[in-house]
Amino acid sequence: MEIIANSGELLQFSVQSEIYAEAVLFKSLYWLTSRAGFEVSIPHTELFLVSVKPLGEKFSNEEREDILAKIRTNLVDFKVRDIINQETTLVRSMILAKAFAHADLPEVRQEHPDSHPPEQKLSKPPYD
To answer: Where is this region: Disordered (predicted)?
Structure first.
């Protein structure tokens, strides 16, 4: 994360997309939306440019530093979660497959309940 602007009216920094996936970046920012406004752009394929603006008039020095610290922490947190998710996907799929291998589950229709005309509305769910 490279800081580009750091004032009371604007915090701006870049994040390398090779290190942090778009989902990781947005999850990191989401938890701070009650404290600031965010805008993300992609000026180059390898960079995200993040602009952070105060919800009020200006950021105090403490607010700026706290927001930047939380963004750094969140980036690491969600990056680690992403790595763990990628590493455990196969194991989770195997556990679910084994858990439901012998289950006799009813077939569920993929039909939306509101797709029937009003006079033909079903009184119970459209599956057996």
So the answer is: 107-128
Mutual angle of helices 22-30 and 61-99, in 10-degree steps:
120
Number of Cβ within 10 Å of residue 65's Cβ equals 13
Q: How many separate domains does the chain show? A: 1
pLDDT in tens, 43-70: 888 999 999 998 888 988 899 899 999 9
CA distance between the termini of the chain: 54
What pTM did the predictor assign? 0.67
DSSP class of residue 45 equals T
Does residue 106 fall inside a structural domain?
no
In a domain, 123, yes or no: no
